[in-house]
Amino acid sequence: MKIISIVNQKGGVAKTTTTNALGIALGSMGYTVLIIDLDPQGNLSMSLGVNFPDEEPFSISQLMLDIIDKKDINTTPFVKNKFGVDFFIGNSKLSMLDKMLPNIRGGEFILDEVLSKLNKKYDYVIIDCMPSVGLLTENALCCSDEAIITTEPQFFSMKGVQSLISEILTIKRRYNPKLVIDGILPTKVNIRTNNTKEFIKMLYEVFSKDLHIYDFIPLSVKISEASKGKNIYQDGKRCKGAVAYLNFVLEYIKRGV
Ligand SMILES: Nc1ncnc2c1ncn2[C@@H]1O[C@H](COP(=O)(O)OP(=O)(O)OP(=O)(O)O)[C@@H](O)[C@H]1O
Ligand SMILES: [Mg+2]
After folding, report:
1. Model confidence pLDDT, tens digit, residues 21-75
2. Crossing angle, helix 135-143 and helix 155-174, to 10 degrees?
3. Which atom of ligand 1 is nearest to the CA of 41?
4. pTM of this structure
5. Best probe residue, ligand 1, of 5, 6, 10, 16 (max atoms within 8 Å of C-beta)
6. E-state strands within the chain
């Protein structure tokens, strides 16, 4: 079972879109996949067809709260989605959890404990992180084998990626030696602008010595429409965004980090 966190403390850089695209593609290739929405915004849950994540009793927040309360947990995930992957719903209870975790001994490892109850029954578990590196994201990184960093092509993002890498390496050193940064995925890229070309060039200059940089995902209207409860592969099999995501998934598998 390989556990992957999709991370960046910056908002709106396609973490949720990438989690969705990676999970659904791996599922359609025959792998067993569990997707976890670890963001109080519940965007991933909504994109997978849950209209009101706050009203769902079965959620990753509840499972983590039950672990904290030392209760037995039922890890039957939410499977009533139309895309063929299992998932754990995320909802606003997660923000309460994010505030509670610093006061709990071993608070970094609550999600790890939930996943240990799955008895390794998935090929891939993919975690959609929230836009901050608080204790919830630390929980994701403490149980992951890999982190994939998504980034938008903006110069401010470069510093953010640098500090995120150093945060991830700290977590690796302190808590989770098996954690590796699989790579950086540039998203929402309009390669026609000079600024964007400069950004991609700089990204390679700064990071490619140490990290893999995936081919970019282009800015695509079809992808932005998919966040409203559709999956990106449904409507636009041949749209450039969906093709780019499929190529990313194939490259991910081929690398087999
Ligand atoms: N390649 C793309 N082209 C166009 N729009 C995109 C692309 N990828 C993502 N988007 C859109 O950008 C917005 C932000 O994407 P997404 O929700 O995946 O980011 P996020 O990093 O998960 O955000 P947050 O930090 O708030 O959780 C969404 O409206 C999404 O549909
Ligand atoms: Mg998101």
Report:
1. 999 999 999 999 999 999 999 999 998 888 899 998 889 999 999 999 999 888 7
2. 60
3. 27
4. 0.95
5. 16
6. 2-7, 33-38, 86-88, 124-129, 146-151, 180-186
Phi (first) and psi of residue 181, to 5 degrees: -90, 110
CA distance 21 to 29: 12
Q: Which domains does the chain have, with CATH numbers?
A: 2-251 (3.40.50.300)
With H, G, I as helix, E, B as strand and everything else as coil, classify residue 251: helix
pLDDT tens profile 103-130? 999 999 999 999 999 877 899 999 999 9
Q: Residues enclosing ligand 1, CB less than 6 A?
A: 11-17, 39, 41, 43, 131, 187-188, 217, 219-220, 223-224, 227, 241
Tokens 């299992």 map to which residue? Answer: 86
Chain CA centroid to CA 138, Å = 13
Tell me the C-alpha to C-alpha distance, in Å, between residue 121 and each of 75, 116, 117, 124, 168: 11, 10, 10, 9, 26
